[in-house]
Amino acid sequence: MKKNLYYATVYQRNNLLRDFILSFFLGISSYPRLILEVFLRKNMGERYFSLASAITIAVVLAFIPMSILRFEYPLFTVIARNLLYYAFLAAFLVFSAFRYREVKREPSVFDFARFSKTGGRVNPIFFKIKLFGREPDIRTVEIWYEALPFFVLGWLLILLGLGTFLGPLLVICAIIYSLSHAGGYKRGDDFLMDKIDEIICNEDLTDAFVKDRESPRGFRWYGKKPSSEDLREEYVEDICYEDDEDEATEAR
Description:
Blueprint (H helix, E strand, L loop, with lengths): L1 E3 H6 L5 H12 L2 H11 E2 L8 H19 L5 H7 L1 H23 L15 E2 L15 H8 L2 H13 L5 H45 L18 H12 E3 H8 L1
Antiparallel strand pairs: 1-4, 2-3
Helix pairs in contact: 2-9, 3-9, 4-6, 7-9, 8-9
């Protein structure tokens, strides 16, 4: 199979800042998303949800107030002053146990009955929220609707002075949840658009390079080329394409 060198060299343009931000939030999103997902999702994949990770998160979060306030208050006072926070962690562990039981009941991934990295089933209630009369799609739900309740609750706790630790935790997790899903969808969009653009480039490149014809789909040849049309036609394959097998051989 031939690789389009011209497309890969000339048309591969990236927004470095945007890609860095989205990749950053995707990279750190696993634990913050899990904190919310145990309440939002059901039937997650066995390689997506881990009870050990959930327990680790709960333990780490439980020690945060203790480590920050250890010089000001005794242990029991710290817990008493943050009952809402520790109640949330307890609920998180309970729901994590529910999610673990669901994973164990699912069909075996080795029988090709289930995608092991599935994010789980989205609560159908989110699809009943119709803003401006429009039913939301899965993209809107995952980026906005699922994170919004936790974001609003977190801000309310902060404004009311009830969530010294819980409020910021929910707000931060909601932001990461939203941005990480946005990054995932952007990557999916870019993957498909790259494939489509490369197909168009493959179909229109010869006319653009050899015949100097302008593509009706917007593809253009950038740069100089041999003045002879016969020469262009003779070498278009060598100049613009590379065999994947040759590339693999060179890599070895």
